[in-house]
Structure formats: C-alpha cells, structure tokens
Design goal:
34% of the residues lie in helices and 24% in strands. With 264 residues, the chain is of the alpha/beta class. The protein has a single domain, classed as Rossmann fold (3-Layer(aba) Sandwich). The strands form three sheets. Strands 8-9-10-3-11-12 form a six-stranded mixed beta sheet, with helices on both faces. A four-stranded antiparallel beta sheet has the order 2-1-4-5, covered by helices on one side.
Length: 264
C-alpha cells in the first residue's frame, strides 16, 4: 500500500468541515483524524451525513468550509492564497490516492472483471496493458475471483461484482480506502464473502473509513467507531465503548437498540 515519509501525522485529517445542500445543512463542523493502518467505521441513522462525508473526502462533493487533508495535502482546494478549487487534473491525482467502493458496484458493464481493474491502472497510473493485466489478476486472486477475470459484470453475482469493485480500488494502491455501505445492495447470503475481503485488507494494514450498518462487523474489525447524528460527530471511540449497552449517549443508545436483537 502507498506510504509516506511523514509517518507520525494522521493520514486523514478532517477539521471543521461543513456542507449544505441549499438550506439543508448536511455536515456541521465535522472533525476527525484517521491514522495509518486504522479501520474507522462510521455509523448513524439515515440522513446523518455519513455518505456525504465520504464523498467530501474524495471530493466527489465539495465542502463549504473547513479542511480535509490526506497525507498533509488539502484535498479539494489549492493551499496558497484564497480558497480556490483545484484543477480537474489535480483532483484526478488526489482522487487516485483515495480508493472508493460504492454500494451500487459501479462497474463498467462492457468491460470484463479484469478490464474494470485495468482501466484505472492504464489511464491514471500509466501502466502498460501487460502490467495492468498482471496486477488485475493478482487482486482478483486475492478476492477469490481469479476464475472470473474474463467475465462481464452481468455474468457475476452481486457479491462477486462488489469484490471486483474492491479489487479495482485497491489495485490503484490508494493511501486510504473509502467504503460506502458496500453490503447494503447485497442479498444476506452474499454479505459474508464481501466482508471477508475487507477483513483481509484490514489485516494487511490498509487504512479504511467504512460506512456500514453491519454492527457485528464494525465491532470485530474496527479500530474506532464514529457515531454521526444530525450532520455531526456525536460519539467516537473504540468499539467496546461505542457499542456498550450502558452508553450514556441517548441518541446512540436509541440507534443501537434497533440492532440488539441480532446479538452483535
């Protein structure tokens, strides 16, 4: 995975970020630091700003105020002078440092599994087709899909498509991986195979920020859990603390009550 010489600083530093859609304030002065090798899971009710926060980290959504830095570099805006959006070329280079996996797979339907992975490697990373194919085959093997390299997305199950999406993201050697409810569109029997891949990446030391409703997985795989409510960070801490039944945070207690029946 990509590394930096500045190993003591937080890899991801979100400071006072706010974002509104019209009159609706979606993010309210959100601050969060993520260290290298951490797996930080973001939980919270629908509409709390979780997905918007991830999209701001990758600058798929601009943020109105505050700062988001990855490895010390401001993500969406130039650092010198007045606040000015980066050029599209600069943004493309910044986004290459953040792999993002979406809940809806977002594979190109006309490309094979290997072709989907190779595209960014050749177009963005400048790899030859031969080298890109080798990298694609390596990561397809890692996610258990070596035998599906030449299959089109329509020939894959939802779980297999999502595993290709993960392979495509990590093949680019991002500094941080963003996972946006990657199991929410899957049938229940397919969830485990996708989460097993994420767990394997965590064991390899990949830095990840993950939005999920899979509480048992969040408990077992996370370094820390962030609970968001009303566009802000309401609680943050280790899983044992955040998921404790005796939490004094009423919003968090109410949210977790929905999941207690599943014995996470």
């Amino acid at each position: 995975m990509a590394t930096s010489s500045n190993d003591n600083a937080a890899l991801l530093d979100i400071a006072g970020v706010s974002k509104a859609f019209g009159s609706v304030e979606v993010l309210r002065s959100v601050s969060l630091k993520v260290d290298r090798g951490e797996v930080v899971t973001v939980i919270g009710p629908s509409g709390s700003g979780k997905t918007t926060l991830l999209r701001c980290v990758n600058f798929l959504e601009s943020y109105d105020s505050g700062s988001i830095r990855i490895d010390g570099k401001e993500v969406g805006f130039r650092e010198a002078g007045a606040r000015q959006r980066r050029s599209e070329r600069d943004l493309a280079n910044m986004r290459a440092e953040t792999g993002m996996v979406f809940q809806s797979f977002n594979l190109f339907p006309h490309l094979t599994a290997a072709g989907n992975i190779m595209l960014g490697l050749t177009k963005v990373r400048g790899k030859s087709k031969a080298e890109a194919r080798q990298i694609a085959e390596h990561w397809l093997s890692r996610v258990g899909l070596a035998h599906k390299a030449d299959s089109l997305p329509a020939e894959l199950s939802g779980g297999q498509q999502q595993r290709v999406g993960i392979a495509r993201a990590v093949a680019m050697e991002p500094k941080i991986l963003l996972l946006d409810e990657i199991t929410s569109a899957l049938d229940p029997e397919l969830v485990g195979e996708v989460l097993a891949v994420v767990r394997s990446l965590a064991e390899d030391g990949m830095t990840m920020v993950m939005v999920t409703h899979e509480m048992a997985f969040a408990r077992d795989a996370s370094s820390r859990i962030v609970f968001m409510a009303d566009g802000g960070v309401s609680a943050v801490g280790p899983p044992k603390e955040i998921l404790a039944e005796e939490t004094t945070n009423e919003r968090l207690r109410s949210f977790l009550a929905r999941f207690r029946a599943s014995h996470f």
